Each structure stands twice: as C-alpha cells, then as structure tokens.
Amino acid sequence: MRPCLLLVLTAIGLITYSSCHQSPPTPVKTDSTEIKLVAGFQQGEALFRRYCASCHRSPKRGGHHNEMLVGLFERMPAPSTQYFIRYIQDSRALEQAGDQYAVAVARDYNHTANHHFRDSMTVAEMRSLIVYIRVMGSR
Ligand code: HEC
C-alpha cells in the first residue's frame, strides 16, 4: 500500500472512531468558589447572631423582620463592601469625620447606636458578614 493511501485510511478511521465514540459525561465538580461562599455564609450567620442580632434581628426581607439591612449594599457609598467594613469598625469615627452617609443614618435613627467592632472581628470575618447579609437581604 502506498504511504499516501495509508494516511488517508488512518485519517478516515480516526474521524469515524471519534464521531462514534461518545465521551462519558463530565462529572459534576464542586466549585471551590461555592464551598468558600457557603463557609462564608455560615461564619457570617454565626457572627451576625453574636454581634448584631440583638438589635437587627435578621437582615431578612419582609414580615416582622427589621429591614434596615435590606438593599444595604446598593445604598451605601461605593465601594459599598469597603464602606460597610469601615462603618461597622467604627461608625462614630465616620460621623465625627463628617462622612455624609454616616451622619445621615445617625440623624435618621436619632443616633441610637454606635458600631465599634474594630477589635472584635477581623476584616475577613466582616467579609463573611457581608455574604450573609447580602444573601439574607435578597430573600
Ligand atoms: C446596640 C444595637 C445595635 C447593634 C448591636 C448593631 N447595630 Fe447596626 N444599627 C443599629 C442602629 C440603631 C442603627 C441606625 C443608625 C444609628 O442609630 O446610628 C444601625 C445601623 C446600622 C447600619 C447602617 C444602616 C444603613 O441604612 O446604612 C449597618 C450597616 C449596621 N447597623 C450593621 C450592623 C452590623 C453588621 C452589626 C453587627 C456586627 C450591627 N449593626 C450591630 C443598632 C445596632
């Protein structure tokens, strides 16, 4: 057999094989991002219960829940996640620095609370609170 013909036959064989041979379905992989999000949510929930729920009850939308934290990240000055961290680290310091948003919130609620969690939580923990509040506030 001439080498050229052999090549063509091999090529046809390969094409036929690959079109008939069905590859098995790809197994569903658990995305590490999902795992991180769930872990963040759970940590955020525990922190919320510990530090915030006494006043905010739940960030959940509707019903008898206090809705102060619903739509929070759409409302806070951008970048809102960073702003949130600064706010709960020390809301009084923000007000005293004349930050318009913090001054307005304090005025609207008659200045009843002071957030000073700088020493109680790490920034990573505050980020998990963000995950929790975002998820709960969208329900
Ligand atoms: C002692 C009660 C109390 C606790 C504890 C508390 N908050 Fe608040 N929070 C308030 C009140 C009251 C306001 C309204 C603003 C004010 O009075 O200064 C507020 C305002 C806020 C705001 C601003 C709301 C807006 O419309 O922008 C955020 C965000 C917030 N709290 C998050 C938290 C988080 C997160 C925690 C827990 C780490 C927490 N708070 C713990 C009572 C509390």
Automatic annotation (TrEMBL):
GO terms for molecular function: electron transfer activity; heme binding; metal ion binding. Pfam families: Cytochrome_CBB3. Residues 1-22 form the signal peptide. It comes from the Bacteria. Residues 39-137 form the Cytochrome c domain. Transmembrane segments: none annotated. The keyword Zinc does not apply. This is Cytochrome c. It comes from Chitinophaga fulva.
